[in-house]
Specification:
The two termini are about 25 Å apart. The chain has helices at about 10-15, 20-25, 40-50, 75-85, 120-130, 145-155, 175-190, 210-220, and strands at about 55-60, 65-70, 95-100, 105-115, 130, 135, 160, 165-170, 195-200, 205-210. It has two domains: about 10-130, Homing endonucleases (Endonuclease I-creI, Roll), CATH 3.10.28; about 140-230, Endonuclease I-creI (Roll). With about 230 residues, the chain is α+β, with helices and mostly antiparallel strands. α3 (about 40-50) runs parallel beside α6 (about 145-155). It contains eight helices and ten strands. A four-stranded antiparallel β-sheet has the order 1-2-4-3.
């Protein structure tokens, strides 16, 4: 959301909650194999971290949505890794794009991947969007249950200070109450104790002290892909 090993018991508990299960496995016509697809548990975990991070779900009708991913050149390998985790959603490789700012004339280069439209993603849009804007749902603790989700979120929006040896997860333009929801979800499910920092123009961020950073990195390091381990303590 910012611009900048699995715990199966937790996921089993989540899947037993009917209202969430219904969102992941829509009923009726949306079960048509030509119009939808079911996500594996691993894909669900990756999608949670992705939606908390940089991804955008775009509505493409009353019930459908598509997933858009964009990363700079440094994160190209990470973007390709993400699309490979959803082979039924992405049928072509990410594309390279260059844009020139109309005022500064500076050229920006990045990579973009855009998925098929699906009612499954439409249901996720209902969960993570309100009035057209992405937000952190109140029941986030029921969704952010796996270290894999946290690792993806950290790969998207995390930052490690080599000098200070602490970490941040940037949250972007969310409200303080949403930032507190994120903090509590991490505390409940991972026994981590971040603090909410107001980074002013950068929005809110979760701050992990040196001690909490060690715990965080130990928890997610096995889920980090090689090209993103620069965000971990050496």
């Amino acid at each position: 959301m910012a611009y900048n090993g699995e715990t199966t018991n937790g996921l089993s508990c989540l899947l037993n909650k009917r209202h969430v299960l219904d969102l992941w496995q829509p009923r009726g016509k949306s079960r048509d194999i030509k119009k939808t697809m079911n996500l594996t548990r691993r894909q669900q975990a990756i999608l949670v971290g992705t939606l908390l991070g940089d991804a955008c779900l775009q509505k493409t009708g009353e019930k459908n949505a598509r997933l858009r991913l964009e990363q700079g050149e440094k994160q190209k390998e990470y973007l390709f890794w993400k699309t490979k985790q959803f082979p039924k959603l992405f049928n072509k490789a990410p594309g390279y794009i260059e844009r020139t700012h109309p005022k500064t004339k500076k050229t920006y280069a990045y990579w973009r991947a855009q998925s098929h439209s699906s009612p499954v993603l439409g249901s996720w849009h209902t969960l993570f969007y309100k009035d057209g804007a992405k937000y952190f749902p109140k029941d986030l603790a029921e969704l952010l249950t796996l270290p894999l989700s946290l690792a993806v979120w950290y790969m998207d929006d995390g930052y490690y200070s080599l000098k200070e040896r602490h970490s941040f997860i940037y949250l972007g333009r969310v409200s303080r109450s949403e930032a507190e929801i994120a903090k509590e979800a991490i505390k409940i499910n991972f026994n981590l104790l971040p603090r909410v920092y107001d980074k002013k123009q950068k929005g809110f961020a979760l701050f992990f002290s040196v001690a909490e950073t060690k715990k965080l990195h130990k928890l997610i390091e096995s889920e980090m892909i090689d090209s993103m381990t620069y965000k971990l303590a050496p």
